[in-house]
Amino acid sequence: MKYDFDEIIERCGTDCIKFDFARERGMPEGLLPMWVADMDFRTPPEVIERLVEVARHGIFGYTETKENYFLALKNWFQSRFGYEFKPSWLKKTPGVVYALATAIRAFTKPGDPVLIQTPVYYPFSGCVKENGRHLVESPLVYQNGQYSMDFSDLAAKIKNQSIRLMLLCSPHNPVSRVWTKEELLELGQICLKNDCLVVSDEIHCDFVFGNHTHHIFPSLKPSFEQNTILLTAPSKTFNLAGLQISNAIIANDSLKRLFSMEVSRTGFSQLNTMGLAACQAAYELGGPWLKELLAYLEGNLALAREYFETKLAPLRLVETQGTYLLWVDFRPLGLEEKAINDLIINKAKLWLDHGAMFGAAGAGFQRINMACPRKVLLDALERLARALKK
After folding, report:
1. If you count DSSP H runs as helices and E runs as strands, how many of each does the chain have, helices first?
2. Which residues sit opposite 90 in a β-bridge?
3. Which residues neighbour 51 within 8 Å (Cβ) at sequence distance 6 or greater?
4. Can you list the domains of the chain with their CATH numbers?
5. Neighbouring C-beta atoms of residue 251, cutoff 10 Å
6. Cα–Cα nearest to 300, from 201, 180, 359, 380
7. What's the pLDDT tens digit per position in 134-162?
8. pTM confidence score
9. Which terminus of the chain is more exposed, N or C, with fewer CB under 10 A?
10. pLDDT tens digits for 173-222?
């Protein structure tokens, strides 16, 4: 490989949330952190070089983007997903969670219901509740080691509760599902029939394994495109979360106008200079790096699968189709959530994301970030195996 993903980069002492804030977050010191979803790999060197170039210029004033920024995004999504969009559809925001909250305020009123599919990335529920909306959950169905959508429950709730906005996670975090074209088509038809907008968070779209294929939700039908707020970002793909850059793509002029007005109400205008530079460089030059990263993560996934099959019984690894997050079923241990956390924290000396934080449907599960050097992942799996033996 041209890029060294085995290199262990010291992150302690860099004000890193993942490594430096255990005590502040109520955790004991000395745990191996495998929780928050950023990677322990450096961003592509081509991105670093672009950032160094900007830093050397030495002026960090108000910054906007020209045509090349749009072209970098357009070429990326067209070449990888067959999805084309126009410059007028693009609205830049300082993060996907910011955009989720913005969409909730733009398209619903206080007290209105908003639907999510649990267990799901916890800011989904946070954004709904903290903006004074009524949270409605349509839990995913877990059967035979894989999750699926409960279309009957989804359709009934959207219709009976007059839900006009749902948040879609695709690929799904934390259950690592890559939704099929057929599943997304059925979901889209339910929403169209009931006049329900879809906010589609596709931040993990570049992480797909095996024979699975990610489908950009608004690309499936022109009617879906007019009924969707698509949220994307280079932050997961290229480990740029701290630079606060994301891109909303909204084809419907009325929806784009309402979304943009809500962004303006927050007082936000230009983005982080470094974030804009990094985003453009990543989409222009980061393809070869990503190809090698995906191959490396496939190796990490193979290691995890083998470990769960041979050394971590009775724990069950949910089939991982996308994202770089492992979703593990601890329920066969027959322990309460508190006892599971005690096993992980005090016996295995690991810091994971406990399932209940993703909604009640996640209770008994744990999320593990595998985007790290293989030696680190092996250490985590061995710690868990030793704790289970004891």
Report:
1. 13, 15
2. 249
3. 274, 277, 278, 281
4. 17-44+287-389 (3.90.1150.10), 62-285 (3.40.640.10)
5. 19
6. 380
7. 999 999 999 999 999 999 999 999 999 99
8. 0.97
9. C
10. 999 999 999 999 999 999 999 999 999 999 999 999 999 999 999 999 99
